[in-house]
Amino acid sequence: MSLFGIIRNIHVLSASIWLGMVVVMNYGLMPSVAKKITQLDVDILKPIFKNVTNLVSLSAASTFITGGIIIWIQTEFYFLGMLNSTRGTLILIAGSVGFLVTIFHFFAETKVENYLRSRSHNNDELLVGYKGIEFIPKIGLVVVSAIFITMLIAVRGY
Q1: Worst-scoring range by mean pLDDT, 55-64, 99-108, 127-136?
Q2: Which residues make Cβ contacts (< 8 Å) with residue 46, sequence separation at least 6?
Q3: Which helix (H) or strand (E) covers residue 133, if one does?
Q4: DSSP 42-111
Q5: Which of 63, 90, 92, 119 could form a disulfide with 154 if both were Cys (CB 3.0 to 4.6 A apart)?
Q6: Radius of gyration, alpha carbons of the chain
Q7: What interhelical angle do 86-107 and 39-75 show, nearest 10?
Q8: How far apart are CA 113 and CA 130, in angstroms?
């Protein structure tokens, strides 16, 4: 297998893990804190939330880095050349949105969550049940799913 093939496979695996963890966050973890929970529940769930968040961060960073390497190998960052085909245009759009989502995840998401949490009388996110910030993972799920599907379409050349 070529270096390009290895990097592409790491990219696809990382993107799949990222999407999978966002699904777990939305359908596994968030519903568990939507109802009133006890301190024991908080003690059990906090490390799980931390591990899922760390895996999301790791997979987002890996997807970003490998995507950048793939774009460099294929175009040497000549983005205007990508606009000459539907495939290139879709990859450029989805990659740009992925770049913005990754930047938001690493540099703004925590600040937005802290601001929204500061408006609550209880700053413990699990005891609050993520009230007021539950929309962030939902938006992330829609956006990451759209990126993933767009990339699948682009790679197949439809």
Answers
A1: 127-136
A2: 126
A3: none
A4: HHHHHHHHHHHHHHHHHHHHHHHHHHHHHHHHHHTT-HHHHTTSHHHHHHHHHHHHHHHHHHHHHHTHHH
A5: 90
A6: 18
A7: 140
A8: 9
